[in-house]
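Interim report to the steering committee. The following record documents the input for Integrase catalytic domain-containing protein (226 residues).
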Amino acid sequence: QLTSKSLQQFFRRNGIEHILIPPYNPSSNGAAEIMVKLFKNRLTAAVEDPRNKEVPISTLISRFLLTYRNTEHSTTGKAPAQLMLGREVRTRWKLLKESREVQTEDNLPEKVRTPVAVQKRKYVGRKRQSVVGSIVYVKDYRREDKVTWTEAVVEKQIGRSVYLCRLKNGQLWKRHMNQIKTTSFENHEAQTSQSTNTRTRQPPVKCDNSKFIFPEINHNAILSKE
């Protein structure tokens, strides 16, 4: 089957050079034979494990492949998945590492580092300052007709520009920096910004028919004329 016509045609179309090993000498194909041996041993151990009694065989195979492809190779020094994808795949083992490399601009790929530098040069927005522990006003979306501002205290920063704010009643709201105003602004300015530009919903006009006076019509006079 390894020398069939269809397989040879597949090799030619994809530019693959098919090299055959000498007969009855499996050591010539040692890398593939070791992989087969490793797979059989690990799969047998997984099947015989009592904890995997109700686990499908397909799941056990997927677990083995995930572990193997994300394990550092002794020759290349990198995991097969990292060589193929260009990055490390996030697994539970990665989470157990005490020292993890922090993603900075210095270790970013060149194709990513250049656009980031261009964005920094062109960025002219306001500087973000830490407001943790400060009393601020946050946008309140509880009213349907307009957006108001509610006083809160910034508990902690949970993102680059996202903060967790605690209201006076103890509720925690997640707000972006653009949805927060510090108390250095006047109260009336905080209350009127943007919310005043929101169109309020006017209640429907009710018509009271009792206020209208309709003239009385003499139906007998109309019939007599006809």
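The first strand starts at residue 135 and ends at 140. The committee is asked to note this result when reviewing the revised timeline.
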